[in-house]
Design brief:
By secondary structure, the chain is α+β, with helices and mostly antiparallel strands. Among the domains are: 187 residues, Multidrug efflux transporter AcrB transmembrane fold (Up-down Bundle), CATH 1.20.1640.10; 34 residues. Helix content is 60%, strand content 7%. The chain contains 21 helices and 8 strands. The strands form 2 sheets. Strands 2, 3, 4, 5, 6 and 7 form a 6-stranded antiparallel β-sheet that branches. It has a two-stranded parallel ribbon with strand order 1-8. It starts with a helix and ends with a helix.
């Protein structure tokens, strides 16, 4: 097959890959910025846990939380309302939650049903061991006009089981509900913080990604005009900031690398034709990106950032081919581009093979981003090699090189290196290499830690932590997975885990825990509680404190039977 046919085939391939990239990026977002994608995938992931993780991740990543804070409560509420209006008009969010009007009748009905199910263990113990103490406390709370209000009236919750539902739903929550405007807020150190939540259109953290950061800037401007402060958090917000930072870093590295490279080439070759050496660079980057997309369906932004380090390597092929031209006998001599390419082609092939094999070894690492880097870099080298061999010789026909400005210095360095080589011989070079290797190993720092790949914005992390403290919510997402042979055994095991974690809660390392055993008793325990409630109907002295505040005996007995049933 002659070079002209290979040239045409290679050109057609590059055009096809270019069209594919245009179509791929026009049809959907192909650049991934999710930090969890950097983690190694498990060999045999549990399907249930994977589905649970994806569901939780989708809920978190598609939401953005914004708090408006001020020492004046009215200012905080007004600022949050204005920002909510701006969010709704932006089209970035499909749903904006700024206020809520609960259906109190439904809430009360649910609390009545759940009352006995969420009864704390300490209260259950009192019903078994000291029932009179339990009903005495209930009677005092019912008769106390200054007691904490409950959505359930005395007639709806004679026994007081429903009063524990709200605390069990989220015992660490510090959120309050304002009855006048329906907004959620928290108070801390003399400031009122009003909560605003937006859900991205389509439930996707990348939907509206480009418009999200300008919207957040507009929201902060609204707060500033009202003299209020803001705090923000959300997976989509982190993704948008990470994407913008990665794109900026990639552009900066590419511009600096290309600028310095071609500035050096212009100084050495002093000819505008050196800009043609960018063709292998462009062809290599295009080929690497296209093949990576074909292989993985999407490319992580970090892969592209790492790929910018290939700029110098992709220019190596054309540079090594063109460099001998500047040491020609005369500027009037026409350089033979085709014959020069045939001369260096064997060494190019060996160099390409060794380098690509080195990148191919990254395919066997557990990190997805390194596997993408292996494909991206390997095929980028193939693309640059093809452009160098097939495109550049015809473009450099009748090229007349100019003498390099540092030719004399090059001759001196060559002479000096020859004398150094003669003095060191083979043993001397081994000693120098051993010293350099020892120093390198001594200064090396080997860590198997994915956090080296991630540079989380400290300011955003601080805001997330502050929001967690204000709301009483742990954004760490820590959880333990327990397995057992049956549902009852599972409830007993989670209860044991809860007891084992109590020291961590006491030390402040955990803010609290939630587990199924806090809401559901094992079957045997349910039967014991059911029998105990029925026994209490025959022990009127145990619930005498309720009758003493005016509740009829029949009413208390019926309430106990209804709870047992």
């Amino acid at each position: 097959m002659n070079l002209r046919l290979l040239n045409r085939l290679y050109t057609a391939l590059i055009l096809f890959l270019t069209l594919f990239l245009v179509y791929a990026f026009a049809s959907q977002a192909r650049i991934q910025t999710d930090l969890t994608a950097l983690l190694p995938s498990e060999q045999q992931p549990d399907a249930l846990l994977t589905a649970a993780d994806k569901t939780a991740e989708a809920q978190l990543n598609s939401q953005v939380i914004l708090l408006a804070g001020s020492t004046d409560a009215e200012t905080a509420f007004q600022t949050a309302s204005q920002m909510a209006d701006a969010w709704r008009k932006s089209g970035v969010f499909e749903q904006v939650d700024s206020s809520m009007t609960p259906n109190l009748n439904k809430v009360r009905a649910d609390m009545q049903k759940l009352g006995l199910a969420v009864l704390p263990q300490d209260e259950i113990r009192l019903l078994f061991e000291q029932p009179q103490a339990y009903f005495q406390a209930r009677a005092e709370a019912a008769a106390n006009p200054f007691a904490a209000p409950s959505p359930l009236s005395l007639e709806q919750d004679w026994l007081g089981f429903g009063r524990f539902v709200a605390d069990k739903a989220n015992p660490q929550s510090r959120l309050q509900w304002d009855m006048d405007n329906g907004m959620l807020f928290a108070e801390d150190k003399g400031k009122t913080w009003v909560f605003l939540r937006g859900r991205l259109a389509g439930g996707d953290q990348f939907s509206g990604n480009d418009a999200l950061l300008p919207l957040m800037t507009q929201s902060r401007q609204i707060a500033s005009e009202n003299g209020a402060e803001t705090l923000s958090a959300g997976g989509a917000l982190f993704a948008a900031v990470s994407k913008a930072a990665a794109e900026k870093e990639s552009r900066l590295m590419s511009m600096v690398g290309l600028g310095l490279t071609f500035a050096l080439l212009l100084w050495v070759f002093r000819s505008g034709r050196v800009f043609l050496l960018s063709l292998p660079l462009a062809a290599g980057m295009l080929t690497g990106l296209a093949v990576a997309l074909l292989t993985f369906g999407e490319v992580h932004i970090l892969t592209i950032v790492i790929g910018t380090s290939l700029v110098g390597m992709l220019v190596d092929f054309p540079l090594h081919w063109l460099a001998p031209s500047v040491f020609g006998p005369s500027e009037k001599t026409v350089w033979q581009a085709e014959s020069a390419m045939k001369h260096v082609l064997p060494s190019f092939a060996v160099s390409l093979t060794i380098t690509v094999l080195g990148y191919a070894l990254l395919w066997f690492t557990p990190l997805p981003v390194l596997r993408q880097t292996a494909v991206f870099s390997g095929f980028a080298l193939f693309g640059a090699f093809g452009a160098t061999v097939l495109w550049l010789p015809p473009l450099f026909r009748r090229y007349r090189a100019k003498t390099v400005p540092f030719a004399a210095l090059t001759e001196k360095l060559y002479s000096l290196s020859g004398r150094l080589k003669n003095r060191l011989h083979k043993r001397g070079w081994l000693i120098v290499g051993g010293i350099l290797l020892a120093v390198g190993l001594w200064r090396s720092d080997w860590r198997d830690d994915i956090r080296q790949w991630v540079n989380m914005p400290t300011a955003m992390l601080a805001e997330v932590q502050q929001i967690g403290q204000l709301s009483g919510t742990d954004f760490g997402g820590k959880y333990l997975v327990a397995e057992a042979q049956s549902e009852d055994a599972l409830l007993k095991k989670t209860a044991e885990l809860g007891h084992a974690l109590q020291p961590l809660i006491a030390q402040g390392k955990l803010s609290g825990i939630q587990s199924p055993d806090q809401f559901i008793l094992p079957t045997t325990e349910q039967q014991k509680l059911q029998n105990r409630l029925r026994e209490l109907t025959k022990l009127p002295d145990s619930w005498k404190p309720l009758t003493e505040i005016g509740i009829p005996r029949k009413t208390v007995r019926d309430a106990l039977l209804q709870a047992a049933d």
